[in-house]
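Lay summary. Proteins are chains of building blocks that fold into shapes, and those shapes determine what they do. In this project we predict the shape from the chain. Here is one chain we studied, written as its sequence of building blocks.
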Amino acid sequence: MPSKFTWFALGAAAGAAAALLYAPRPGVETRALVGEKANAVCGEARDWGAATSINASDAYRKAQDRGSVAYQNAQVKGREFAKNAQEKTSDLYNTAAARVQEKIHGVSPAFSGSNDDLREKIEAARQRIAAQVAANAEESQVQAADDVVETSAAEAPAAEAPAPEPAGAHAAAPAADSSEEGKAE
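And here is the predicted shape, written in a compact code that computers can read:
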């Protein structure tokens, strides 16, 4: 849709044409007057076009210069931001690493002390187990000797049985033999 200026210009041209047609001057004078006015308007349009072209070129150069400066400023600020971010990240990393190292050093001695206590407890448990195993072995040998004596006494005929011995004396002798056998092995 045409702008208001376009309608105004069209109206002015129509008015000028109507004025020329109804002008009180003769045609030669009117045509000369119209030609002069047309040349004047054409010259003004050329001057305005040249000025506009120059102004547009200046505006373009100024905008380009401003854009270049803004781009350079953005680059500088971007580098500064990246550098600051890297320094802060490095500082945070170093701080965290130092804290972790402190915690590690604080925990290590606790483990070392606990390890010594734990080793002592394990050694004591080994000794108790060894003593229990030895006691169980002796008890098993005594029980085995008693079982052998009882079995051989039950198998022997009653007539051939030797004179009765006290039960404690007979059981003690084989137990001593079996404990000596265990030591020899």
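What the prediction tells us: Confidence is low (pLDDT under 50) at residues 178-185.
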